[in-house]
User: What shape does this take?
Amino acid sequence: MNEIELKRNIMDWYPFAPDSTILTIEDTLEDVGEQQYDYVVLIGTIDKNPEDQVMEYAKKHLKQAGKILMVIHNKIGIKNYCEKRANQTQQPKFNRKQIETLLKKHDVNYYKFYYPLPDYETTNVIFTDSFLPNPETLARNISLHENEDIVFQSENKLFLDLWEQDASLFTLFVNSYFIECSTTDIPDNQIKFVSFSNMRKPEYRIKTIIQGDKVYKTARNEQARKHIEDLKKNIEILNELGLQTLDTFEDEVIISQYQNDIPNLEDKISSQIKKGQKEEAIQLMLRFFQEIKEKLTIAKTQKNIFKEWDIPYQSKHIETLTFVRYGLWDLIFQNAFYLNGQFFFYDQEWREEGIPVEYIFYRAIYYTKILRGIPEREEIWKQLGITNEQLTLFMALDDKLQEKIRSEWIWIKHRQGKNIESMEAEIEQSQQEKEKILDDCKKLLNEKDARIKFLEDNMDTTVKLLQQKESEVLQKENKILEMENSMSWKVTKPLRKLREKGESDEN
Assistant: This one.
């Protein structure tokens, strides 16, 4: 997936009427004569052109029962409070209330708001007023960054803070809006929620739409058709094993019965724990594990995924594990309902042969947030017979599974940017390097000062030594001169000459 493909997401989900005509405007308003269209799509157009001019243009080219699809950034989007973008060149002009005022000013009185995250340019999930985010679904907000972006705080954390105050505050601070609007009444398309799987590799990428009382999953590309076929096979396996599922397969689409206003199993367990009913929650979890183990271990296998995937282990640490042929490793509380005393499963995308059934239990517990904060979790591991050594193996296996599915390009974009902690670390490192350089300079200066002081301290002595040597030389020269002028030296001068001549003759 590249940035161009990401930008397509904002329109890829919308249920355009068959054989409809569409006019799409992104930058300048084009001269298209007097032609009218079923849909006029305005992607960021109002931020780049006079808004009244854009609205009149859209209405002029809209059929009587046509729809304007307006895609626009929010002036008070939460991104503005969480980061400073390196490549941001234009500021949005409108917040939600101002958009509604603009629509009504031009008699566009029928509209429905959709809320794409992280924004309309890199959409991964779309919420609506009938399906606002919660802590679980907010995790699908995968914000992307450039290297030079400065991230002050997590968008999701700030969204969660707002959610704890009032879930509807999300609609005011979302980064972008998709508005379906018209001058005539709009029949509700019943779309509540849309999710793309941007974080995955192309072969695992699917689109999920909740519409009415059903959930639809389709392949995003040709490569992902095999993944949809794998989902179909998983549905057949669940039925074969006697595990009840809400999923069916029709015309290359996975369809689930959407359980509106019914908490999934994770929510039910979390509610029990918050109410102080920890023992009831633990018993419900143990019953869940017992049913899965009874059904999955019907088909055991000799295949060992730790060996297959080169995860180091000691034989004694895996001898109590039960390896199964149908390793449906996403049988977690989030993907199950507890209805009328029975468990119902859905959204089972993944399967690997040779996975221990205990690893499936580990994931169910590990990915339930409320269980991370209670001491009883350790007791649950013990009751399931899961040792610390096995937990280490399970964590390594989980990393391998995530790496198999994850798009590295998106993962890198998600983790890019400079946060406050990293910038503080860079400043600290720079400060340490600066202090080291200063210390080295001080050391050199101190050495130089010491050498200068040494020379200064020894200069007088050196001068005295030189003067002393000069005096000694002078004294010797004077002695020689005295000798040459002495009477004995003059008297013996002829004898010295005869001796010098004799030595010369001998030579």
